[in-house]
Amino acid sequence: MPSLDSLNCRRELKVGDATYHYFSLPEAAQRLGNIDRLPKSLKVLLENLLRNEDGQTVQPPDLQAMVDWLDQRTSDREIQYRPARVLMQDFTGVPAVVDLAAMRDAMAKAGGDPQRINPLSPVDLVIDHSVMVDSYASSSAFHDNVELEMQRNGERYAFLRWGQHAFDNFSVVPPGTGICHQVNLEYLARTVWTKEEDGVTLAYPDTLVGTDSHTTMINGLGVLGWGVGGIEAEAAMLGQPVSMLIPEVIGFKLSGKLKEGITATDLVLTVTQMLRKKGVVGKFVEFYGDGLADLPLADRATIANMAPEYGATCGFFPVDEITLGYLRLSGRPDATVQLVEAYSKAQGLWREPGAEPLFTDSLSLDMGSVEASLAGPKRPQDRVSLSQVSQAFDDFLGLQLKPSAKEEGRLLSEGGGTAVGGNKQSGEIDYEDDGHTHRLKDGAVVIAAITSCTNTSNPSVMMAAGLLAKKAVEKGLQRQPWVKSSLAPGSKVVTEYFNAAGLTPYLEKLGFNLVGYGCTTCIGNSGPLREPIEKAITQADLTVASVLSGNRNFEGRVHPLVKTNWLASPPLVVAYALAGSVRIDMTRDALGTGKDGQPVYLKDIWPTQAEITQAIAQVDTAMFRKEYAEVFTGDEKWQAIAVPKSDTYAWQGDSTYIQHPPFFEDIAGDPPRITDIRQARILALLGDSVTTDHISPAGNIKADSPAGRYLRDNGVAQADFNSYGSRRGNHEVMMRGTFANIRIRNEMLGGEEGGNTLHVPSGEKLAIYDAAMRYQAEGTPLLIIAGKEYGTGSSRDWAAKGTNLLGVKAVIAESFERIHRSNLVGMGVLPLQFKPGTDRTSLKLTGKEVLAIEGLEGVELRPQMPLTLIITREDGTHEEVEVLCRIDTLNEIEYFKAGGILHYVLRQMIAN
Fold this sequence. Notes:
Elements: E1 10-15, E2 18-23, H1 25-32, H2 40-51, H3 60-72, E3 78-81, E4 85-89, H4 90-109, E5 123-126, H5 141-166, E6 170-173, H6 180-188, E7 192-197, E8 200-205, E9 207-210, E10 224-227, H7 230-237, E11 242-245, E12 249-255, H8 264-278, E13 284-288, H9 297-305, H10 307-310, E14 314-316, H11 321-329, H12 334-346, E15 361-366, E16 373-375, E17 383-385, H13 389-401, H14 405-411, E18 428-433, E19 436-441, E20 445-450, H15 453-456, H16 459-475, E21 484-487, H17 492-500, H18 504-509, H19 531-540, E22 545-548, E23 564-567, H20 570-579, E24 592-593, E25 599-600, H21 602-605, H22 609-616, H23 621-627, H24 636-639, E26 677-685, H25 692-695, H26 706-713, H27 731-737, E27 756-759, E28 764-767, H28 768-778, E29 782-785, H29 798-805, E30 808-813, H30 818-826, E31 830-834, E32 850-854, E33 866-872, E34 878-885, H31 890-898, H32 901-911
Parallel strand pairs: 4-5, 4-9, 5-6, 9-10, 12-13, 12-15, 13-14, 20-21, 20-22, 22-23, 26-29, 29-30, 30-31
Antiparallel strand pairs: 1-2, 3-11, 7-8, 16-17, 18-19, 24-25, 26-32, 27-28, 31-34, 32-33, 33-34
Helix pairs in contact: 2-3, 4-7, 11-12, 16-20, 16-22, 26-27, 27-29, 29-30, 31-32
């Protein structure tokens, strides 16, 4: 509906021959107060409220609160934000479309029109998460992997093609095109959006939410966006605003320039370390300072991409000449570029040199101080100088050999429990492969992957990798035989410019052949290692490494047998493939021996900035226009997929990929009454930094796991298990996979790895799924107890959905990551937070207690209200402690009372 425009700030903007209507921030400021120094990210939110003022969800006090933020530079005001569009990838997109299809069924069952379940704003779903690196280091790798992808995922892709035809405003970018965030950066985003409304063209900031946490990448282009869970994105599609508190904004001042030989990856790992140390969870970060004048758009996008790793909601870069230059380079129409410039300047969104907004807090970095870096062995914020990587690995290995209390507590409890060390022997082993004998040692690099939109979107680091490969080949260096190498760009444009620069043959010579256009190794789709190597690692219990140009390195994520994972720039990925081990000092030790018999060092093959700049000159607009000309068309395999034509989906009862979910079965009745939680048991007792990967893994399905047994019982051969991520359309697989990560540690079992728990009071050790089903049969509600940073990582709604289906009523943690906390509320699971000074350790919890949560029943629920946790121990003694209810907004209260956000939306639609 049109805005009430109570401030009378709607104006016209003439750009060339076109006239646009817009809601003028300077005009609004005449009535609200000066906003010159309001952070530009908050100006975008203010415009959003002005344009969507309806007297109900957005009222004049909300507008005033945005300006009053400047008084304290913080606010407890809840606002309702409506993004312009939604971005999805297929791992999160398939379950979202499953939910929408189930909501159509529920609407029809209630006597309503299923067509009312339709996206109201544009939705783009990019299929990028399904391609796996089965074939590599060969000219046929790309073709082979695409063939396997289509064989494995034909049913899922047919379902998405049905959705593309059944729903309005829903577009699918077919597989083999690129990674959603890079496609968004290079093609989908406009920086300023337009739509026709009442016969005029309305212009407003391009904004979005995405069902992937790295949606934040687009903030590098001046587009405000962040990741949300699939359930929240679905609600946004259906017209429900995103409920949020006006955020604190942390200013990050950049000055100076990167030194010769330092990459954008080194910069982003430094920024990530600084901001994670600062503590920016739930906050916006906005970059400013004179250093932006020389910071390329691709470098900005790399920094913005890793906002989830530094913990922020987003890392925003304002619009300036560099933004316009990238829009031109990537083939956006001239009219779009002209509108972006005119609109940004008219609205005070343009970056002016020397201007410094007022921030909640700030920090600064002289980019000249950045040094060559990696991050590892298992957290993206753990930056390590290049010269110290070998020592960092040895420190980690030493903990496995001989645990030391303090460091073991930090490093090894981050998988969700307290690990037991002391059994590992420092190792090496000989193995035979292809008729040759090789020696594999601790620290061996078994995966070297140029992967992920974080870096493959950046021509400077990609060209650096190609140039380093060229020099290495010319010197006579080769990839070590145990290294699985791969190149998976985020778009076809990368292949175009590698070919134009003549670098493709050199990359291929070192085994970095194209394996696919998708996320691959970055999300755990690294595929199997060669069988002799897997056997050697297992037999000698080796601690081996991956080096990847990705954004996450949580344990168990890249490959189940690879315990240490190191984030690095693409050229360093190539260098480590040559060295074959992380146990060398790249700044001093030779990578290998050249064809002249002389040692070759990293400095001998590292490209100069002048060489990189010359190579980047090959990138031109024609490449972008060629590759995106038919972005929604797909190849002949995609076109050949049969598409059923129907408004509701014809579910197949025997499908192991797509099943009707149980979430909306009783939607026509009243939601259940909120009651206290009584006689609850602890399903798992977990430590710090439990990620959504730990809660709901995306990778391999083990044959002896509950999910593996389910698939076998339904006639699926182990070779066809595919991954958890690919089966998110089937709740039967996903609930069995919840807490099934092989690296999760449950303190109820002494910290041993694997998704098991202790059933109480029987004392029987069971898979977490099996224990949960037994508790459900016994009528016992369940709780999860955890440490700090619970739910960090991917915006994985199945981490909340699976928790719900296991019968978990509440999660009590020391702190939550933003998206997962919201997802828990969105699925009707209560997030509770220990007060400072209280935790599972101070309470001496063992997992054998009976727990109760009181204070929910018969009261008016309110955000962040105190509740009482009552602990009854085995000896019958009681203890009461106060916990904080982390339902943070009034809207979330309504969602929780309805049983979840989609239940709330669907009940409203049925009622109307």
